[in-house]
Specification:
Elements (H helix, E strand, L loop, with lengths): L1 H4 L3 E4 L5 H15 L6 H8 L5 H9 L2 E7 L2 E9 L3 E7 L8 H15 L4 E7 L3 H6 L3 E10 L2 E11 L8
Antiparallel strand pairs: 1-2, 2-3, 3-4, 5-7, 6-7
The structure holds coenzyme A (COA).
Length: about 170
Amino acid sequence: MARSAHTPGLRPFLPADAATLAALFRESVDELAVDDYDEAQREAWASKADDEEAFGALLAGELTIVALVDGEIAGFASLKDNADFHMIYVRPELARRGVGSALADAIEKIAAGRGTKTLTVDVSDAARDFFAARGYVAKTRNTIEIGGQWLGNTTMTKELAPAGRAH
Ligand SMILES: CC(C)(COP(=O)(O)OP(=O)(O)OC[C@H]1O[C@@H](n2cnc3c(N)ncnc32)[C@H](O)[C@@H]1OP(=O)(O)O)[C@@H](O)C(=O)NCCC(=O)NCCS
């Protein structure tokens, strides 16, 4: 099966990953969000990674993990303040092969291990089905402004099983 062939390895973010993750972020937004946001909206969203140094500092300031497939970076995810699932982005050519699931499993385990009971995420319309499939529940609909563009997203939450009781 394709999924097992691509089961990713995981490791912590390293400062040297910043440029690769910035490029991955831009590609992921541009290609995987194409059905949900127009070109100007995607460009505004993707521009968050234009300053690679600042983007790297943002990732370093959160708990960021990187997924590897065949030794290459395939995606990343970040946890902010132990309870805010801030980012998750997968390389477009590796979408729907379990990379996002492996990253989200790890973020949820880490958050639970730190005593977090409720994990919150502001979910893009492109990722809503992914989070819903993982048991996240929609709470509020938001409209955020990025670079003069207005983008809709949804705040979703998931109640985490206490660490050690997941099985
Ligand atoms: C959301 C995202 C991280 C998912 O990563 P992924 O590696 O493709 O996810 P997985 O392969 O682990 O998917 C697991 C399940 O989620 C659901 N799912 C994932 N993507 C989906 C989609 N586009 N449409 C419907 N369901 C989807 C499916 O149930 C899927 O299981 P299946 O493939 O067996 O049907 C990825 O699509 C992405 O990077 N999107 C663009 C950036 C983005 O919006 N990030 C979130 C910001 S909040």
